[in-house]
Design brief:
This protein is an alpha+beta fold and 300 residues long. The chain has two domains: 72 residues, no CATH class; 149 residues, Sandwich (Immunoglobulin-like). A five-stranded mixed sheet has the order 5-4-3-7-10. Strands 6-12-11-8-9 form a five-stranded mixed sheet, covered by helices on one side. It is elongated, with a radius of gyration of 26 Å. The termini are far apart. The structure holds copper (II) ion (CU). Copper (II) ion (CU) binds next to loops.
């Protein structure tokens, strides 16, 4: 390798190293109860997983990262080898890449990557949906919540003691209605039906590894369960607050769509729900049509 090339290589490596270190130094350190400490700036903290099936989502994300790293390393080695092997002593060969050998190699490598990486992700995603995330029978055995997204807040509605959601025109209503405030009991399936009155939002619970679009004109389904085992593992106690976020850019005040999901013990939840239902049935106003956004629940 001649002097010029050495200079180019070492300068390039030096600049990459300096910029990486500089970036690591300015990366903000996140914290708080919602986040698990990643250990260092090189591995930033990430939202705690407190849900029954959260590890399935984490596995998919981690395995995707592993595949990307493996492919990246292979590509780097290949490029370095190509740089060194095809030096000035190497006689250049020209071809259009359409020889049988080239076509077979390209198709073979693409197919191998597709079947190993995408095939693996597809198989496990479908398995997770069947075994967990689309287990609507399990979801139906817990509590039900209707979520009405709008610019720029989350309305939540729980059926009161009568077990039915109020709809327009009801004379009385014992529903619990809250704003940017969702409370759920520990170890109980929570079935959300999500809709929107204006634009597309996305109901996102990072600590439960769950996200569902809130789309005008349709009702989408999602369920979660707070896991006492994961609380114990991470030294968390009830009541514990987690973030609700909007994961779809929905307008100028998108950032305002932050709410709180609180996990309560079953007893505390019952006490809260009973009290909130009484307060709301007293405050119910049949004439206030804006507040009549609930719909008849239809399970999948
Ligand atoms: Cu939004």
């Amino acid at each position: 390798m001649n002097l010029k090339r050495w200079t180019a290589w070492t300068t390039g490596l030096f600049c990459s190293l300096v910029s990486t270190l500089a970036l690591a130094d300015v990366l903000p350190e996140r914290g708080g109860d919602n986040y698990k400490d990643g250990g260092s700036r090189w591995f930033p903290s990430y939202p705690r997983d407190v849900s029954l099936y959260g590890e399935r989502i984490d596995w998919l994300i981690n395995i995707t990262a592993v595949f990307c790293i493996i492919l990246f390393v292979i590509m780097c080695i290949w490029m370095v080898w190509a740089c060194l092997a095809h030096n000035q002593n190497h006689e250049a060969e020209y071809d259009h890449g359409n020889s049988k050998h080239s076509v077979v190699m390209a198709l073979g490598i693409s197919a191998a990557i597709f079947f190993v990486v995408d095939g693996n992700l597809f198989y496990h995603s479908v398995k997770d949906l069947n075994e967990a995330f689309w287990d609507w029978e399990e979801a139906n055995s817990g509590i039900k919540i209707e979520i009405n997204a709008h610019q720029w807040a989350w309305d939540a509605r729980y059926p009161g003691p009568d077990g039915k959601f109020c709809v327009k025109g009801d004379e009385t209503c014992d529903d619990i209605v809250t704003l940017n405030d969702i409370r759920i009991p520990m170890d109980t399936p929570v079935y959300f039906q999500v809709a929107s009155t204006d634009v597309i939002h996305s109901f996102y619970l990072p600590n439960f590894r769950a996200k569902q679009d809130a789309t005008p004109g349709m009702v989408n389904h999602m369920w979660i369960q707070a896991s006492s085992e994961k609380f114990k593992e991470q030294g968390l106690t009830t009541p514990q607050e987690f973030e609700i976020a909007c994961a779809q850019h929905c307008g100028s005040h998108h950032y305002k769509m932050r709410g709180t999901l609180t996990v309560l013990s079953k007893e505390d939840y019952e006490a809260w729900a009973g009290h909130a239902s009484q307060l709301n049935s007293r405050a119910y106003d049949k004439e206030d049509l804006d507040s009549h956004w609930g719909w008849s629940w239809e399970s999948i």
